[in-house]
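for the record, two folds in this file. i put them one after another cuz i was lazy. first one right below, seq on top, structure tokens after. the second one comes after a little note so u can tell where it starts
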Amino acid sequence: MGVEDDNIVIDRGIALHKMLRFLTLTLGGQAYLNFMGNEFGHPEWIDFPREGNNWSYFYARRQWSLKDNTDLKYHYLSDFDKAMISLSKEKGIQDYEFADQLNLDETNKTIIFSKNSLIFVFNFHPSKSIFDYSFNVSFPGTYRIVLCSDSKKFGGQGRIDELMEYPTFYNEELNKNTLRIYLTQRTAIVLERKM
């Protein structure tokens, strides 16, 4: 779990963990509860005091310090957690009970929905990134990324230019506004329309 350790299994696990937490926060209702610190790194088992371990408290603890160690990857999960909770508070994500489904793509393992003024894009595909992934949106305009789980500051690969802006296109056949983005595998992106 060192930041210099190159392990595709760990990197995939971190990517999916961030996505699942964010999906839970955005669609889980009007509250969010984290998982008691396991997500920030608890490499040992939990063993509460009992007769079989001589009533020891040694493994009945959380190692909260792991998230503060910038030489370990656990801090990426903590940093992402802070960013998604901050975004939720700032944009009132949990003030809106229901999301509007914009796209559900089983082939590409993609879920896209809007909530409040934001568009949430989740690509759960294990290996497929898609250039110019197209989906319909409710409002025309230019969109920008406000949060990306693949950002290097969250332990991602940094494959998406977060400064890029995405204008909508009017699809006359469908009579809909369409957005096209670069959609990388195992990534969650939040888009906001510029005002």
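(here's the note) second protein begins now
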Amino acid sequence: MREQILDSLQQKGDLPPLPKVLLELQKLKNDPDCDVDDICRLIKSDMVLTGKLVALANTVFFSGGRERADDIEEAIVRLGIKMVLDLCYCVEVPKAFKEIKSFDQTQFWKHSLAVSYLTRLLANELLEDDDSLEASFLCGLMHDVGILVFDYLVSEKYYDFLNNKDIENSDQSLESLELKTFGIDHQELGAMFLKKWWEMPSLVVEAVTSHHKDYIDEGKEIILAEILSAANKLANENEITHPISTRYENVSSEDFIKRAGISQEELENFIDQAKLGILAFDCLFES
């Protein structure tokens, strides 16, 4: 089964392309001559995206009590370029996978958003490398994309896999059961997809590859992949889970939190921010 899946991945088949507006945003982001006006013009060419970003800028979470942003120019000033780029991915990527029928996508993306916020919050606290900080939000959003890719490449087989009661009641992790059944898990498959077809930064690919890894403190510096792993655990521990689960009990995030020197007050604040951030996206999930 592994070879069949990898062959299908190489051929792409029906896999969704990265939305055009995100491709163009990537090009602008990598262009040293790009400015805010260029990004504004690109976003304004997509009226639906424009409306979503303005709506997000006016939510309590992003507005901070300020006066209403009436257009995309004001929304970009309020949010900042980096946040605008991240939010464009939040709006566009779920639409690319809208054909998924095997599970509740709303719950799936809420979990992904929570992991995005937590990864970025922890990264801002613990990392200094600009590339890692820039990639942190995207790591969280993309960490479970391999589950979606499974559904696209072997839709019927993956549907049967997910709806098998033995999976739901298993004491093994989802990725272990995927590996046993398909010869590959959603970590590896998602990372391969992101690298080959969506040309994601290497830091994102590396983190997605190991987001279920239990990192051990060996005196090494904390890295982005380790933060993503911890953020995923924190989301699950605080009942912001995606709709696919087994009875497997993950190693707690407690050791990481202690190692990172995060206080209980800081941790609770991070969780609250993640939950508020999800609420800001209700307008997207309902449409």
